[in-house]
């Protein structure tokens, strides 16, 4: 089998997909995405998930990992000294991850102390949401002077985790621009990331309140980056952060304990090269996270020209629930064979 037995091309139903260029046997490893471009471990899982290889302590019959960084307050724990040392060398370039993590935690703590005193949230746009309306909101946010700490809008837990995810993307971009770590391109380049499907408009149309949430996170991240000058060029405008928000939705992967889908999710990550597999409710590809890497295997024999598809949803759900989730989070109506066969209740059937 060729190392890359597939090709990315346009699909008949819109967008791009991955198609087999040769027969592929069942259980073949067809693609490995070596490392995430950006990732975040939920704050309350930090002591239990290795900051480098994402190993879950409970899988090793431990309650927490006990190797942490020397610098207090970074909130990063590791399963081994080897993981810590590799992370220090390849991920914490310029000690930037430490700096942003300490910054986020410090600001979040102050936020907790002054709860109830934050500035009122930006109003959500009322429908119909247009691209112009979204553009205007970002331009206005860009030109708004940064408030003092005390006047910063308060972020909830998920927004704080989102800020950490965004900051990890900024650090990745910085590392790649420096071009000093040979492994840094394993995650895909910034140009590759920009090729991913941009879901900004459908996301804000479906959840108008996400726009004000993104703007709050933007203000928060600008605040953090004031203390981390190396990252400042990426926030000179809102272009970079907006590009990440637009591609995060619909393109990221949940990280689960023991890499089993359906188990507890402890964070999420963006694997750029892996984001071109479309969805099918009877997929011929399954994914497996192995340490930092995401691997993709065939579940059965695949013929030349067949599309390689993973599943985005819980396949034990019934057809209505699957279609609801796909429409809500990935903005399409599933018309796969399985949905057609289970089509009772499917609109138009
Ligand atoms: C992770 S991306 C997959 C790659 C994407 N097709 C592209 O061109 O970048 C997920 C998006 O692909 C599209 N998609 C995935 N599976 C699909 C399917 N079975 N039918 C229609 N659209 C699908 C949806 O727009 C979805 O939000």
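Sequence proposed for the structure above (349 residues):
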């Amino acid at each position: 089998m060729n190392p890359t037995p597939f090709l990315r091309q346009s699909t008949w139903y819109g967008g791009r997909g991955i198609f087999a260029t040769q027969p592929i046997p069942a259980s073949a490893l067809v693609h490995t995405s070596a490392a995430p471009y950006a990732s975040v471990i939920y704050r309350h899982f930090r002591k239990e998930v290795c900051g480098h290889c994402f190993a879950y302590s409970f899988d090793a019959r431990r309650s927490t990992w006990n190797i942490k960084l020397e610098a207090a307050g970074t909130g990063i724990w590791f399963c081994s000294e080897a993981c810590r040392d590799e992370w220090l060398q390849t991920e914490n370039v310029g000690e930037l991850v430490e700096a942003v993590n300490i910054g986020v935690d410090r600001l979040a703590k102050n936020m907790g102390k002054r709860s109830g005193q934050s500035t009122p949230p930006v109003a959500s746009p009322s429908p119909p949401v247009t691209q112009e309306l979204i553009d205007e909101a970002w331009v206005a946010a860009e030109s708004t002077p940064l408030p003092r700490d005390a006047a910063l809008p308060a972020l909830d837990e998920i927004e704080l985790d989102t800020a950490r995810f965004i900051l990890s993307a900024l650090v990745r971009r910085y590392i790649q621009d420096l071009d000093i770590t040979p492994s840094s391109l394993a995650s895909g380049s910034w140009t590759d990331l920009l090729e991913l499907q941009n879901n900004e408009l459908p996301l804000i149309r479906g959840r108008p309140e996400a726009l004000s949430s993104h703007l709050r996170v933007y203000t928060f991240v600008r605040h953090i980056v004031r203390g981390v000058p190396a990252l400042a060029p990426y926030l000179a405008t809102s272009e970079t952060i907006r590009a990440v928000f637009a591609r995060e939705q619909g393109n990221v992967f949940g990280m689960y304990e023991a890499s089993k889908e359906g188990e507890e999710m402890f964070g999420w990550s963006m694997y750029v090269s892996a984001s071109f597999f479309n969805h099918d409710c009877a997929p011929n590809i399954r994914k497996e996270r192995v340490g930092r890497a995401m691997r993709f295997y065939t579940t059965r024999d695949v013929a030349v020209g067949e599309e390689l598809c993973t599943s985005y949803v819980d396949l034990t759900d019934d057809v209505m629930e699957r279609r609801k989730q796909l429409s809500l989070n990935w903005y399409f109506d599933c018309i796969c064979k399985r949905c057609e066969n289970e089509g009772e209740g499917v609109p138009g059937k």
